[in-house]
Design a protein that fits this description.
This protein has 323 residues and is of the alpha/beta class. 38% of the residues lie in helices and 24% in strands. The protein is built from eleven helices and 14 strands. The strands form three sheets. Strands 2, 3, 4, 5, 6, 7, 13 and 14 form an eight-stranded mixed sheet that branches. Helix 8 links the parallel strand 6 (157-161) and strand 7 (190-196). The radius of gyration is 20 Å and the shape is globular. It starts with a helix and ends with a strand. The model has no long low-confidence stretch (mean pLDDT 95). The site of N,N-dimethyl-L-histidine (AVI) has 11 residues, from strand 12. N,N-dimethyl-L-histidine binds at residues 53, 61, 163-165, 167-168, 208, 215, 282, 284.
Length: 323
C-alpha cells in the first residue's frame, strides 16, 4: 500500500485487521493479472453464502466428507489414543467435529481461529453438548506458528483440518502449512485431514457453477465487502463470476470478470479494468492419492490410512508425524 493509501486508511481509524485487508487488496489489485485472496470471502455475508453452498446439490464435498466421517467413525476412533487433545485448524460449522467428538474419547478440544467472537460462540455450544470435554479455544491465525494451551501439553495430539481447505492453498503454501502443523502438534502427533479428489471435469465445473447462482454471489461478495469495509466504489453488477477447471494444474480457478471498461476508486487509488479483464479470486486444488501422499511426506507426515466414499469423490486421511 502506498503512503497516500496508508494515510487514508489510518485517517479512517481502521483496526489492525482492516488495515491488513486494505494493504492486501491494494497490493493484489496492483498485480498483473489482478487477484484477491480467498481468505477475504468470509465476512458475515460470505460465511452465510458459504453455508448455503455446502447444501447445494452440485457441491458434493461437504456432504461427501460428512458421510465418510459418519461411516468410518469407528475406524477413525480405533487409531486415536484415549484422552488425546483434538486441535482443529480453523473453526467453521461444528457438524464435522461433533461426529469425531461423539465417536472418539478425546480429553480436550482446541479450536484455533482468527475470529475470537466466532470461536467463543462455538466453544460455548460445544461445552453445553459435551459437558465432560475440556474446550480451550485459541484465537490465532492457524497458518502461522502458535502455542498450544499448557493444559494440553502432556496429552497426545491429533490435528483436524476438514473441508479440503488445504485445496485453497497453493501447493507450496499447503506444504508450509502441513510442516507448521507438524511443528505445533509435535512428535508422535496424528492429523485427520479432508482432501477433495480429482474427478470428471463436468462434476467439478458444476460444483463451482451452481444453477442457483450461490457461488456467483459468494464470489461477488468480496467486492461488496471491499465497498463496505474499505470505502471502495466497485459496481458489483459490472462484474461476473467465472469458474473453470484447469486440468493441467489440477485446480478450479475462480475469477471475477469485468463486463466493461471501468475504473474503481479505493483509498485514494484508481484501478482500471479492460472489458473481460479478470480478478483471480480463488484456486481450489484437487488431489490424487499419490500427489497428496507426496505432499504430506515432504512436510513430515506419513500416510497411515485413507478413507473414501464409494464414488471416489472425496478423501479423509490419517497422517502420523514422521521422525
Ligand atoms: C472452503 N473451500 C474448501 C471451498 C472450495 O471448494 O474450495 C470454497 C469454495 N469456493 C467456491 N465454492 C466453495
Amino acid at each position: 500500500m502506498n503512503v497516500h493509501a496508508s494515510a487514508l486508511a489510518k485517517a479512517q481509524h481502521f483496526d489492525e485487521q482492516t488495515m491488513a485487508f486494505a494493504r492486501d487488496v491494494i497490493d493484489d489489485l496492483s498485480q498483473r493479472p489482478k487477484r484477491l485472496s480467498p481468505k477475504y470471502f468470509y465476512d458475515a455475508a460470505g460465511s452465510e453464502l458459504f453455508e448455503q453452498i455446502t447444501l447445494l446439490p452440485e457441491y458434493y464435498p461437504t456432504r461427501t466428507e460428512l458421510s465418510i466421517l459418519r461411516d468410518r467413525g469407528h475406524a477413525i476412533a480405533a487409531i486415536i489414543p484415549k484422552g488425546a487433545a483434538l486441535v482443529e485448524f480453523g473453526a467453521g460449522a461444528t457438524t464435522k467435529v461433533r461426529l469425531l467428538l461423539k465417536e472418539c474419547a478425546f480429553g480436550a478440544y482446541v479450536p484455533v481461529d482468527i475470529s475470537g467472537d466466532f470461536l467463543k460462540a462455538q466453544a460455548d455450544a460445544l461445552r453445553k453438548d459435551f459437558p465432560d470435554l475440556a474446550v480451550y479455544p485459541v484465537a490465532a491465525d492457524f497458518t502461522a506458528p502458535f502455542a498450544l494451551p499448557d493444559a494440553v501439553q502432556a496429552m497426545p495430539k491429533v490435528g483436524f483440518f476438514p473441508g479440503s481447505t488445504l485445496g485453497n492453498f497453493e501447493p507450496h503454501e499447503a506444504c508450509t502449512f502441513l510442516r507448521s502443523a507438524r511443528a505445533i502438534l509435535g512428535d508422535g502427533a496424528q492429523m485427520i485431514i479432508g482432501v477433495d479428489l480429482e474427478k470428471d471435469d463436468r462434476v467439478l465445473y458444476d460444483a463451482y457453477n451452481d444453477a442457483a447462482g450461490v457461488t456467483a454471489r459468494f464470489n461477488l461478495n468480496v467486492l461488496a465487502r471491499i465497498n463496505r469495509e474499505l470505502g471502495g466504489n466497485f459496481d458489483v453488477s459490472a462484474f461476473t463470476h467465472r469458474a473453470i477447471y484447469n486440468r493441467e494444474r489440477h485446480r478450479i480457478e475462480m475469477h471475477l470478470i469485468s463486463r466493461k471498461a471501468q475504473t474503481v476508486r479505493l483509498l485514494g487509488r484508481s484501478f482500471s479494468f479492460r472489458p473481460g479483464e479478470s480478478i483471480h479470486t480463488e484456486c481450489s486444488y484437487k488431489y490424487s492419492l499419490e500427489r497428496f501422499t507426496a505432499l504430506a511426506r515432504g512436510a513430515g507426515w506419513r500416510l497411515r490410512e485413507s478413507w473414501m466414499d464409494n464414488g471416489g469423490m472425496f478423501s479423509v486421511h490419517a497422517l502420523v508425524a514422521s521422525d
